[in-house]
């Protein structure tokens, strides 16, 4: 699927369920783009449950947040936090003491429109699920990256999110990131392979991120780790976003074993042609 190239791109990173590593993907992908010299801002749209600031190590520097900007208590420039290690990376944190109704989709569009002249990439960390926070996050999106784990329940929820995006009037193009893949479990057919997941979801794959404890350690330190196996995978995803033809280095087939298994799960899919509808 062709992705619109423009001076500035708003990319929403979302998932069908919590716990798949969506915020970690947002942080590491933002850092990877910034390391390549791209000017990046990431927006935490998970109002009330912010975590992006922790993973990027800026939690002690927050003065103002997204809701402060929307409600006029500060201007946008005063809410942005510049990352100390990556000078091209900025963060717009979420409010912790408000809920997702504090911001509307139209307000998110105005925020991103104000940021477009300043940044090449605007990455939005969406709340999981399909409620108001999701609608806020996808409203300004030029494209969407959907994060899933190679587990039946996570893939089923990703299928639902893809269906919701296809029902939107704007219908931004979507691509898939498969996170926390354990190669040995795939080989033993105890985990879905990348091929299984893409066959089920019928969506373009932009990256596969292996399970890597270095990501957890880096998140606890507030500093993405570019030299780990997962860090290299995020760099590859960033290069693909920039239009490079980078081979997928972490895919591993399991002969469709789990694709047959997931046909047992019916009734939750929202899209025609979804394996969950069969």
The CATH architecture of the largest domain? 3-Layer(aba) Sandwich
Q: Largest beta sheet, briefly?
A: 8 strands, mixed
Strand content: 15-25%
Q: Give the number of DSSP strands.
A: 8
CATH topology of the largest domain: Rossmann fold
CATH C-level name of the largest domain: Alpha Beta
Give the CATH superfamily of the largest domain.
P-loop containing nucleotide triphosphate hydrolases
Contiguous low-pLDDT stretches (5 residues minimum) are: 1-5, 253-270
Arithmetic mean pLDDT: 87
Could you give the distance between the termini? 25 Å
The dominant shape is globular
SSE sequence, one letter per element = EHEHHHEEHEHEHEHHEHHH
Can you characterise this structure?
With 278 residues, this protein is an alpha/beta fold. The chain folds into two domains: 9-245, P-loop containing nucleotide triphosphate hydrolases (Rossmann fold, 3-Layer(aba) Sandwich), CATH 3.40.50; 247-278, no CATH class. The chain is 37% helix and 15% strand. It contains twelve helices and eight strands. An eight-stranded mixed β-sheet has the order 3-4-2-5-1-6-7-8, sandwiched between helices. Helix 5 runs parallel beside helix 6. The longest helix is centred in the middle third of the chain and has 16 residues, at 152-167. The model is unreliable at 1-5 and 253-270 (pLDDT under 50).
Describe the secondary-structure layout.
Elements: E1 9-14, H1 22-35, E2 40-44, H2 52-55, H3 66-70, H4 76-79, E3 81-82, E4 89-92, H5 105-115, E5 121-125, H6 132-138, E6 143-148, H7 152-167, E7 174-181, H8 183-187, H9 194-201, E8 205-210, H10 213-221, H11 229-241, H12 257-262
Parallel strand pairs: 1-5, 1-6, 2-4, 2-5, 6-7, 7-8
Antiparallel strand pairs: 3-4
Helix pairs in contact: 1-11, 5-6
């Amino acid at each position: 699927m062709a992705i619109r190239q423009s001076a500035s791109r708003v990319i929403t990173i979302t998932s069908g369920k919590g716990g798949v590593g969506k915020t970690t993907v947002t942080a590491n992908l933002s850092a990877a783009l910034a390391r390549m010299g791209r000017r990046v801002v990431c927006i935490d749209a998970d109002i009330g449950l912010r975590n992006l600031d922790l993973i990027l190590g800026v939690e002690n520097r927050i003065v103002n947040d997204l809701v402060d900007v929307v409600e006029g208590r500060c201007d946008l420039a005063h809410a942005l936090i510049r990352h100390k290690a990556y000078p091209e990376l900025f963060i717009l944190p979420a409010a912790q003491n408000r809920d997702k109704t504090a911001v509307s989709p139209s307000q998110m569009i105005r925020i991103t429109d104000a940021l477009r002249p300043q940044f090449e990439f605007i990455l939005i960390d969406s709340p999981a699920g399909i409620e108001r926070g999701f609608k806020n996050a996808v409203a300004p999106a030029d494209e969407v990256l959907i994060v899933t784990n190679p587990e039946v329940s996570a893939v089923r929820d990703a299928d639902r999110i893809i269906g919701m995006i296809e029902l939107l009037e704007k219908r931004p193009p979507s691509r898939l990131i498969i996170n926390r893949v354990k190669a040995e479990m795939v080989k033993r057919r105890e985990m879905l392979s990348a091929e299984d997941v893409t066959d089920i979801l019928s969506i373009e794959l932009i990256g596969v991120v292996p399970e890597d404890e270095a990501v957890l350690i880096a998140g606890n330190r507030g500093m993405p780790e570019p030299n780990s196996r997962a860090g290299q995978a995020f760099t590859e995803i960033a290069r693909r976003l920039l239009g490079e033809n980078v081979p997928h280095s972490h895919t591993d087939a399991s002969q469709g074993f789990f694709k047959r298994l997931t046909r047992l799960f019916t009734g939750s899919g929202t899209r025609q042609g979804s394996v969950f509808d069969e």
